[in-house]
Predict the structure of S-methyl-5'-thioadenosine phosphorylase.
Amino acid sequence: MAKAVLGIIGGSGVYDLPGLEDIREMRIDSPWGEPSDVLRVGRIGRTEVAFLPRHGRGHRLSPSDINYRANIDVMKRAGVTDLISVSACGSFKDEYYPGFFVLVDQYVDRTHRRESSFFGRGCVAHVPMAHPVGPLLRQRIADAAVAEKIPFSLNGTLVCIEGPQFSTYAESITYKNLGYDVIGMTAMPEAKLAREAEITYATVAMVTDYDCWHEEHDDVDVASVVAVAHQNARKVAGLIARVARDFPAEHEPCPVGSDRALDGAIMTAPSARDPELLKKLDAVAGRVLKAPAT
Ligand SMILES: CSC[C@H]1O[C@H](OP(=O)(O)O)[C@H](O)[C@@H]1O
Ligand SMILES: Nc1ncnc2[nH]cnc12
């Protein structure tokens, strides 16, 4: 089995990773374009950790402008096997209050202007997404949250909107009535691309607000998100440090197959594949595209 390397993608309010030691800044070239920032690679305990702030340092990139493909590709090139995505989110449940963490296990994708696959013309692939989150990775986060005394839910459905505007009242009430738990703007296509790259993925959704459905709370705005996001950032640093310190040296085989998602997923016949696209897929699909040893 592969050596475990833990990737962390930081969201709003999480632009660095306290506790990361022996840091090297790695500017990794990607055939998919510019990632959000340099990768900061170091270690926490004995675990190698690669950190990337999704919006770039200084929060330069809006959710629609993030190059999700480049971000996942550089994580793959850095050897990341398990990826924790950290996000600020709005809540649709009274009991998921600002400061509460939701360990998402399902996503609903309402984005519409993002590149959401590494595959396409010249190399078509369909990976399973029924279970988008690695259960062992999620359980490790849950164990760490218990130890850190962070209130959390072990599951939840996150609806990802295009943004950058927050939702209308009608949208917010609709999502709430559909039973969704939290809302954000960045988990998709990140989770889909991680799956295509065979990286085990989990989201820590940190509640910052009640969106705009709650009669007793103000409608979400940036100031309210930022105020809570700073407090959440301190808590999530402790959480991640604990996950990393307790992480196994070798990647644990994923029970839902996230680390083997490309087995049988590519439809395009070898003779019909586009060599230019295959070159770009060298990292994310290298395991299955490499010519078999003769
Ligand atoms: C600043 S509120 C909206 C912004 O916050 C969340 O970012 P992230 O998921 O990267 O933590 C949300 O998705 C929006 O991008
Ligand atoms: N209410 C909300 N809607 C979308 N993204 C968010 N990120 C934080 N709060 C949010």
In short: The mean pLDDT is 96. The two ends are 22 Å apart (CA to CA). The pocket of LNRAV4D5 (ligand 1) is lined by residues 11-12, 54-55, 63, 87-88, 163, 184-186, 222, 225 (CB under 6 Å). The CA atoms of residues 5 and 48 lie 5 Å apart.
